[in-house]
Description:
This protein has 31 helices and 35 strands. The strands form ten sheets. A six-stranded mixed β-sheet has the order 6-5-18-17-16-7. Strands 25-33-30-32-31-34 form a six-stranded mixed β-barrel. It is globular and about 80 Å long.
Amino acid sequence: MLAKTSVSSETRIEHEEHGPAGGWGSLKSVGGVLTRQHALLKSTQVLPHQNKPDGYACVSCAWAKPEHPHAAEFCENVAKATAWEITSKRATPEFFLQHSLSELETWSDFALENEGRLTAPLRYDATTDRYVETTWTEAFDAIGGELRALDPDEAVFYCSGRASLETAYLYQLMARLYGTNNLPDSSNMCHETTSVALPKTIGVSVGTVVLDDFDHTDCIFFFGQNVGSNSPRMLHQLQDARKRGARIVTFNPLREPGLVSFVNPQSPREMLTPGETQISTRYHQLKTGGDVGAILGICKALIEIDDAAASCGAERVLDVGFITEHTHGFDDFARYARQVAWEAIESHCGLSRDELRFSAQIYASAKAVIAVYGMGLTQHRDGVENVQMLTNLLLLRGNIGKQGAGICPVRGHSNVQGQRTVGITEKPALAPLDRLKELYGFEPPRDKGLNTIEACEGILQGDVKAFISLGGNFLRAVPDTLRMEPAWRKLRLTVNIATKLNRSHLVHGEVAYLLPCLGRIEIDRQQGVPQAVSVEDSTGVMHASRGRVAPASDKLLSETAIVAGMAEALLPANPRVPWADWAADYASIRDAIARTFPDIFHNFNSRLRAPGGFHRPIAARKRHWNTPTHKANFIVPTCLDADPDMPAPDGGAILRLMTIRSNDQFNTTVYGYNDRFRGIHGTRSVILIGDDDMERLGLSEGDIVNASTVADDAPRTVYGLRVVRYEIPQGCAAAYYPECNALIPLWHHAKGSCVPAAKSIPIRLQRVADPRVGVHSSEQPFP
């Protein structure tokens, strides 16, 4: 049987202006997905309840939910995610009887998930190489027996970003009662860098901006975040800010349409007229990895302007009062900024001093500045310094702890921040172990657990024997996939809790279970009573979520019930841990969370009913600094390049690759094979390269190349990428995630946070000599 790979046999690369984000293109794209998933009618009944007090929280991104929502408080990505969940397509046990796992491994990511919702619990049958239906009781008993046969630290309990606060709390408690802190989660692959950087600078692990700040800011600086594809609902706040006259200064290697202009699909006037909102007032296409240099250049320019003002008695540019009262380390940082040469800054970031000085003037003239960033800052070898440098910039003019200002990391998955808040962490110091001991009468493990990178290393070395995954597509999302997949097959036990089929379910352990769960949009009834769950958004606000549609199958269990069922089968009875009672009434779990984290979750159930949810306390918003110095700290960078260990350019043959997402995907979920923002249709096997590099390497539009990582430890190659001419800085290239994760060495991660350095991968290209005979034919090295 042929491998299922694409939704279209047509591959087109277009180069016209692709127009603004939103508008008719967004509606057409959403309509196509809803139609393909046979969910058009059902979606009209469901989507109006998205991010509403009586409805369900976003199932894709974690962007903030307003207290007073728009009539349609959803975006293109959310509509696609909703269609994916409420689809009428089903992957039944009969489907798995027809297809072996070896065959399904040849299918594409899209084709696997496009089969629809899983409907019954499954176990792997080695004799037929198929998943076969089982019972929930058999699955729980077998999983419990397998885990009890292991040392607890031989098992890993991974959590994706969609699990609710209630489920995440039970999951971490189960793992710790079992005896391990091996609790990696999806933040290990994205914003763990934030969680490491910010406590050292401002004493909190999350951003300080709330949604209301966007109504009072007069300037926004954007770094490494593609709002149009990854968090489109934020475009409403950006559009409103621009209409008030706020300036938006963007730094991004690629010119992304969502940061250029926007047509609001909810505005009849905008849809029916040629008008659109210009989002960025200035757009700087800096080199990949040049963020430290660019931000330092702005800081240097500000300090130079302030020095000149101080010398002649003019009004100061820096907020001297704030710096004196609230910060530590300014003199060392200012000395470093004064001494670093402009030529070095320009070389590292690819921007001129005039461009950076102009941005500094914009920053200096603003009363309240928000700094927004995404994985373009966090996924670098020195990603921690990237984030700390951005904090330095804000501290220079007191832009933390005042209205309309602050630092704003844009989290990815819908509850990835909240999971950490309720104890999903491998770091014992960040978990309330003493409180758990007091509440539940056991001695929690005190040794550090495994993060994502360490879990992968443990699997490669054979030290990890079992992997339990609460959602996600872990094996597709991690680096070094060509090495990880063979090692994965040596695991004794793999368990996946999921709504749809993905590759992580096919590359399995000796004993494997696939456990289908309710989606967030589905009505979750326990003992006949509809339940609500809760999530935390990117701005630290807790929201309730209530399902709106009937479950895809009567054999599905909720994530909460599955975790409770596994725990009861795994652990000895403990009268203080009422798994069955918790699974029957989620309000009782929220009471337990409130007892464990009273500072954040006191009166959890009653506060959750408030319109717009409730805020977690963030000390830095009140200029209380929970750092060893009891002040906000300036951090001096160690170098100007976010990836200082990149190999030498080697005459221009080595390119710096960043992985990107299309507007037809969310994380590892691919909704289709079109990226209309970049003019790419019918394929994801492309690499974006600039004119100068194409000329230097002797490449032409449409050439087929293989990309290999420049690393000495192991060969890593992705085959058959079509060259696309694109506006991108010299020496840089871009290609899609997760297809190019195979190029990221496991050791190539952020120092301090272990986040994969997916935004700066050193690669060399080889042209396929004759594309007609396939990607593995003889190649010609460059140059």
